[in-house]
Description:
Helices cover 73% and strands 0% of the residues. By secondary structure, it is mainly alpha-helical. The protein has one domain (24-266). The longest helix has 34 residues, at 71-104.
Amino acid sequence: METVMSVNEPVVNEPTSLVMPRRRVIGAYLEEARSECLRYMRAPGFMLPIMLFPGMFYLLFGVFMAKSEGADAARYLLASYGVFGVMSPGLFGFGVSLALERDGGLLTFKRALPMPPGAYLLGKMLMAMAAAAVVILLLLVMALTLGHVTLNLAQAGALLLTGMLGVLPFCALGMFVGTLIKGQGAPGMLQLIYLPMSFMSGLWMPLPLLPKFLQQIAPVWPSYHLDRLALAAVGLDQQPLLPHVLVLIGFAAGFLLLAARRLRRNG
Protein backbone atom coordinates (compact mmCIF):
# COMPACT_ATOMS: atom_id res chain seq x y z
CA MET A 1 0.00 0.00 0.00
CA GLU A 2 1.57 3.26 -1.09
CA THR A 3 1.93 6.12 1.31
CA VAL A 4 0.96 9.45 -0.17
CA MET A 5 2.60 12.52 1.33
CA SER A 6 0.12 15.12 2.40
CA VAL A 7 0.46 18.48 0.76
CA ASN A 8 0.38 20.05 4.22
CA GLU A 9 3.23 17.95 5.53
CA PRO A 10 6.39 20.03 6.01
CA VAL A 11 9.26 19.25 3.71
CA VAL A 12 12.59 18.69 5.46
CA ASN A 13 15.42 20.21 3.47
CA GLU A 14 18.90 18.75 3.34
CA PRO A 15 21.41 20.71 5.45
CA THR A 16 23.59 22.86 3.29
CA SER A 17 27.21 23.68 4.05
CA LEU A 18 27.88 27.31 4.75
CA VAL A 19 30.75 28.66 2.72
CA MET A 20 32.15 32.07 3.59
CA PRO A 21 32.14 34.37 0.56
CA ARG A 22 35.54 35.13 -0.90
CA ARG A 23 35.16 38.79 -0.05
CA ARG A 24 34.67 37.99 3.63
CA VAL A 25 37.60 35.55 3.57
CA ILE A 26 39.90 38.25 2.21
CA GLY A 27 38.50 40.70 4.76
CA ALA A 28 39.23 38.24 7.58
CA TYR A 29 42.83 37.88 6.46
CA LEU A 30 43.29 41.64 6.20
CA GLU A 31 41.66 42.32 9.57
CA GLU A 32 43.79 39.72 11.34
CA ALA A 33 46.93 41.14 9.73
CA ARG A 34 45.94 44.67 10.73
CA SER A 35 45.19 43.73 14.33
CA GLU A 36 48.43 41.76 14.62
CA CYS A 37 50.50 44.66 13.33
CA LEU A 38 48.72 47.14 15.61
CA ARG A 39 49.22 44.89 18.61
CA TYR A 40 52.97 44.83 18.15
CA MET A 41 53.25 48.48 17.19
CA ARG A 42 51.62 49.26 20.55
CA ALA A 43 54.17 47.10 22.38
CA PRO A 44 57.31 49.27 22.65
CA GLY A 45 59.05 46.57 24.69
CA PHE A 46 59.01 44.43 21.56
CA MET A 47 59.48 46.96 18.76
CA LEU A 48 62.15 49.22 20.25
CA PRO A 49 64.84 46.54 20.77
CA ILE A 50 64.20 45.22 17.25
CA MET A 51 64.80 48.66 15.75
CA LEU A 52 67.41 50.08 18.11
CA PHE A 53 69.87 47.20 18.59
CA PRO A 54 70.87 46.80 14.91
CA GLY A 55 70.96 50.59 14.54
CA MET A 56 73.22 51.06 17.58
CA PHE A 57 75.56 48.27 16.48
CA TYR A 58 75.80 49.68 12.97
CA LEU A 59 76.37 53.19 14.27
CA LEU A 60 79.22 51.98 16.49
CA PHE A 61 80.92 49.44 14.22
CA GLY A 62 79.74 50.39 10.75
CA VAL A 63 80.00 54.17 11.01
CA PHE A 64 82.44 55.21 13.74
CA MET A 65 84.89 52.28 13.83
CA ALA A 66 84.77 51.52 10.08
CA LYS A 67 85.78 55.02 8.97
CA SER A 68 89.43 54.04 8.75
CA GLU A 69 88.58 50.89 6.74
CA GLY A 70 86.88 52.71 3.88
CA ALA A 71 83.41 52.68 2.36
CA ASP A 72 83.43 48.93 1.62
CA ALA A 73 83.60 48.15 5.34
CA ALA A 74 80.53 50.25 6.04
CA ARG A 75 78.77 48.64 3.07
CA TYR A 76 79.69 45.15 4.27
CA LEU A 77 78.41 45.83 7.78
CA LEU A 78 75.22 47.36 6.37
CA ALA A 79 74.37 44.00 4.83
CA SER A 80 75.49 41.95 7.85
CA TYR A 81 73.75 44.03 10.50
CA GLY A 82 70.70 44.18 8.26
CA VAL A 83 70.50 40.39 8.41
CA PHE A 84 71.12 40.50 12.16
CA GLY A 85 68.24 42.93 12.48
CA VAL A 86 65.67 41.05 10.38
CA MET A 87 66.28 37.78 12.22
CA SER A 88 64.81 39.23 15.41
CA PRO A 89 61.18 39.92 14.37
CA GLY A 90 60.99 36.47 12.80
CA LEU A 91 62.34 34.58 15.80
CA PHE A 92 60.81 36.59 18.62
CA GLY A 93 57.67 37.82 16.87
CA PHE A 94 56.65 34.24 16.15
CA GLY A 95 58.39 32.24 18.85
CA VAL A 96 57.69 34.23 22.00
CA SER A 97 54.19 35.34 21.07
CA LEU A 98 53.14 31.85 19.95
CA ALA A 99 54.44 30.28 23.15
CA LEU A 100 52.65 32.88 25.30
CA GLU A 101 49.41 32.57 23.35
CA ARG A 102 49.48 28.79 23.66
CA ASP A 103 49.95 29.07 27.42
CA GLY A 104 47.17 31.63 27.80
CA GLY A 105 44.68 29.73 25.66
CA LEU A 106 44.46 32.48 23.05
CA LEU A 107 45.46 30.14 20.26
CA THR A 108 42.64 27.74 21.20
CA PHE A 109 40.21 30.66 21.27
CA LYS A 110 41.31 31.86 17.84
CA ARG A 111 40.75 28.39 16.42
CA ALA A 112 37.13 28.56 17.57
CA LEU A 113 36.55 31.86 15.79
CA PRO A 114 34.91 31.85 12.33
CA MET A 115 38.02 32.93 10.49
CA PRO A 116 40.32 31.17 8.02
CA PRO A 117 42.96 29.11 9.86
CA GLY A 118 45.79 30.73 7.93
CA ALA A 119 44.81 34.28 8.89
CA TYR A 120 46.56 34.01 12.26
CA LEU A 121 49.86 32.96 10.70
CA LEU A 122 49.58 35.45 7.84
CA GLY A 123 49.04 38.29 10.31
CA LYS A 124 52.20 37.42 12.21
CA MET A 125 54.12 36.95 9.00
CA LEU A 126 53.15 40.37 7.67
CA MET A 127 54.02 41.93 11.02
CA ALA A 128 57.49 40.36 10.86
CA MET A 129 57.98 41.55 7.27
CA ALA A 130 56.91 45.08 8.20
CA ALA A 131 59.31 45.13 11.16
CA ALA A 132 62.12 43.83 8.93
CA ALA A 133 61.42 46.61 6.43
CA VAL A 134 61.66 49.22 9.19
CA VAL A 135 65.02 47.81 10.32
CA ILE A 136 66.48 47.84 6.80
CA LEU A 137 65.20 51.34 6.08
CA LEU A 138 66.71 52.64 9.33
CA LEU A 139 70.09 51.12 8.50
CA LEU A 140 69.93 52.44 4.93
CA VAL A 141 69.32 55.98 6.17
CA MET A 142 72.28 55.71 8.57
CA ALA A 143 74.53 54.20 5.90
CA LEU A 144 73.73 56.81 3.26
CA THR A 145 73.97 59.81 5.58
CA LEU A 146 76.44 58.98 8.36
CA GLY A 147 78.41 56.13 6.79
CA HIS A 148 78.75 57.82 3.38
CA VAL A 149 77.92 54.54 1.65
CA THR A 150 77.11 54.88 -2.04
CA LEU A 151 74.19 52.74 -3.20
CA ASN A 152 72.01 53.13 -6.24
CA LEU A 153 68.25 52.76 -6.06
CA ALA A 154 68.33 49.17 -7.36
CA GLN A 155 70.81 48.09 -4.68
CA ALA A 156 68.84 49.74 -1.88
CA GLY A 157 65.62 48.16 -3.17
CA ALA A 158 67.28 44.75 -3.46
CA LEU A 159 68.51 44.95 0.14
CA LEU A 160 65.05 45.96 1.35
CA LEU A 161 63.40 43.09 -0.54
CA THR A 162 66.03 40.65 0.73
CA GLY A 163 65.32 41.67 4.31
CA MET A 164 61.53 41.49 3.97
CA LEU A 165 61.55 38.04 2.36
CA GLY A 166 64.55 36.81 4.31
CA VAL A 167 62.67 37.12 7.60
CA LEU A 168 60.37 34.23 6.60
CA PRO A 169 62.77 31.32 7.38
CA PHE A 170 63.27 32.77 10.86
CA CYS A 171 59.50 33.05 11.27
CA ALA A 172 59.31 29.31 10.60
CA LEU A 173 62.11 28.59 13.08
CA GLY A 174 60.55 30.84 15.72
CA MET A 175 57.18 29.19 15.16
CA PHE A 176 58.71 25.74 15.68
CA VAL A 177 60.48 26.80 18.88
CA GLY A 178 57.22 28.37 20.10
CA THR A 179 55.52 24.97 19.83
CA LEU A 180 58.21 23.29 21.91
CA ILE A 181 58.53 25.37 25.06
CA LYS A 182 56.44 27.38 27.49
CA GLY A 183 56.00 31.12 27.19
CA GLN A 184 58.30 32.05 30.07
CA GLY A 185 61.18 30.04 28.66
CA ALA A 186 60.78 31.18 25.06
CA PRO A 187 62.81 34.44 25.21
CA GLY A 188 65.82 32.78 26.81
CA MET A 189 65.78 29.81 24.45
CA LEU A 190 65.49 32.03 21.40
CA GLN A 191 68.38 34.19 22.61
CA LEU A 192 70.48 31.02 22.81
CA ILE A 193 69.66 30.45 19.14
CA TYR A 194 69.76 34.05 17.91
CA LEU A 195 73.08 35.29 19.25
CA PRO A 196 75.32 32.24 18.60
CA MET A 197 73.83 31.84 15.11
CA SER A 198 74.58 35.49 14.33
CA PHE A 199 78.17 35.16 15.51
CA MET A 200 78.88 31.85 13.75
CA SER A 201 77.40 33.12 10.47
CA GLY A 202 79.88 35.98 10.25
CA LEU A 203 77.37 38.75 10.92
CA TRP A 204 79.41 40.44 13.64
CA MET A 205 82.79 40.04 11.97
CA PRO A 206 83.91 38.65 8.60
CA LEU A 207 84.16 34.87 8.44
CA PRO A 208 87.91 34.84 7.61
CA LEU A 209 88.52 36.33 11.07
CA LEU A 210 86.72 33.45 12.81
CA PRO A 211 88.31 30.12 13.75
CA LYS A 212 88.54 27.66 10.87
CA PHE A 213 86.02 25.18 12.24
CA LEU A 214 83.43 27.97 12.54
CA GLN A 215 84.08 28.90 8.91
CA GLN A 216 83.47 25.30 7.88
CA ILE A 217 80.10 24.99 9.65
CA ALA A 218 78.85 28.47 8.73
CA PRO A 219 76.73 27.18 5.76
CA VAL A 220 74.66 25.18 8.26
CA TRP A 221 72.95 28.37 9.48
CA PRO A 222 70.23 30.12 7.47
CA SER A 223 71.65 33.48 8.52
CA TYR A 224 74.81 32.69 6.54
CA HIS A 225 72.84 32.19 3.33
CA LEU A 226 70.75 35.30 3.92
CA ASP A 227 73.96 37.25 4.52
CA ARG A 228 75.30 36.09 1.14
CA LEU A 229 72.15 37.40 -0.51
CA ALA A 230 72.37 40.71 1.36
CA LEU A 231 76.03 41.15 0.36
CA ALA A 232 75.09 40.48 -3.26
CA ALA A 233 72.30 43.06 -2.99
CA VAL A 234 74.81 45.79 -2.06
CA GLY A 235 77.32 44.66 -4.69
CA LEU A 236 79.86 42.82 -2.54
CA ASP A 237 79.25 39.19 -3.56
CA GLN A 238 79.24 37.92 -7.14
CA GLN A 239 78.71 34.21 -6.39
CA PRO A 240 75.62 32.35 -7.72
CA LEU A 241 72.58 33.21 -5.61
CA LEU A 242 70.27 30.30 -6.43
CA PRO A 243 71.85 27.79 -3.99
CA HIS A 244 71.39 30.25 -1.10
CA VAL A 245 67.77 30.93 -2.11
CA LEU A 246 67.00 27.20 -2.30
CA VAL A 247 68.55 26.55 1.12
CA LEU A 248 66.44 29.30 2.69
CA ILE A 249 63.25 28.02 1.02
CA GLY A 250 63.96 24.49 2.19
CA PHE A 251 64.75 25.68 5.70
CA ALA A 252 61.51 27.69 5.88
CA ALA A 253 59.37 24.86 4.46
CA GLY A 254 60.91 22.25 6.75
CA PHE A 255 60.41 24.12 9.99
CA LEU A 256 56.95 25.28 8.93
CA LEU A 257 55.87 21.68 8.40
CA LEU A 258 57.37 20.61 11.72
CA ALA A 259 55.64 23.46 13.55
CA ALA A 260 52.27 22.77 11.87
CA ARG A 261 52.54 19.10 12.82
CA ARG A 262 53.20 19.92 16.44
CA LEU A 263 50.36 22.45 16.54
CA ARG A 264 47.93 19.84 15.19
CA ARG A 265 49.01 17.36 17.83
CA ASN A 266 49.57 19.52 20.87
CA GLY A 267 47.75 22.80 20.15
